[in-house]
Structure formats: C-alpha cells, structure tokens
Amino acid sequence: MLSAIAFAIKILVAAAFVVAFSLGKGTAMPRDRVGFYALISVVTAAVTAVSQELNSGLLAGAVFVVIGFISYSQFQNEGDLFETLQAISPLWVVTVIGMCCGVGMLLQGAFLTFLAYYLLNYFPYLLGHDNKSEQAES
Fold this sequence. Notes:
globular, single chain
C-alpha cells in the first residue's frame, strides 16, 4: 500500500516539476508542448521506478537509447547548432527530471528543474546570441 502511494507521489512530482520548468517568460519550452513533456517525464519516472523494483537498469537504459535516437534525428533535420540545442535540451531535461523522481531523488530533481530553468531561459544571453540577432536586425 505504501509503495503504491510512493509511486503516485513520484509520478505527480515529476509532472509538477515539468510544469514548474515551463513557467516564465522564456521560450525554453513551448507552451503547447508542456503536456507532451509532462507525459515524457511521467513515463520516464514510471519506467525508472519499475526498473528499480526489478533491480535492472535495462529499462532505464532503453529510455536513454530512445531519447538518443530522437536527438540524432533532430540534429540531422536542423541546420543551426544553437537552435538544435534549444530544441533538444528540454527533452533531455524532462527525461532526467523524470528519472530523478522515479528513483526517489526529489531534492535533486527540484535542483535540476531550478538549474535547467535558469540555464535554458538565459542561455541566449549567456552566449550573446540575442545581442547578435538584435544587431543584425538593426
């Protein structure tokens, strides 16, 4: 009974972290894709929790392989490296957030959400990418 409650809490926290990650003015995660990313995080948390109960890392490893194939196909389709990284990074972040929640590392998942929110929302400013695009428009 307690393990089912803990599993439900892990799933809810994984979805809550992704929703918190999507808040704000930044364009790190498009608003229309929040449900998709929350679903990825919840599925990853569930797969990781089941994998932990079975004492097998194969399921969690399979998730990384699938995300790797998706990232590879995205790299082939996109032209600019900066835009490709901005498109792929939320996918990897929500996957790792889901894995943190699935294993029960909720504090680490919260810290990763906080860190990824600020890095992805202010990544263009850190690299000076927005300043160059504003100067090119003028």
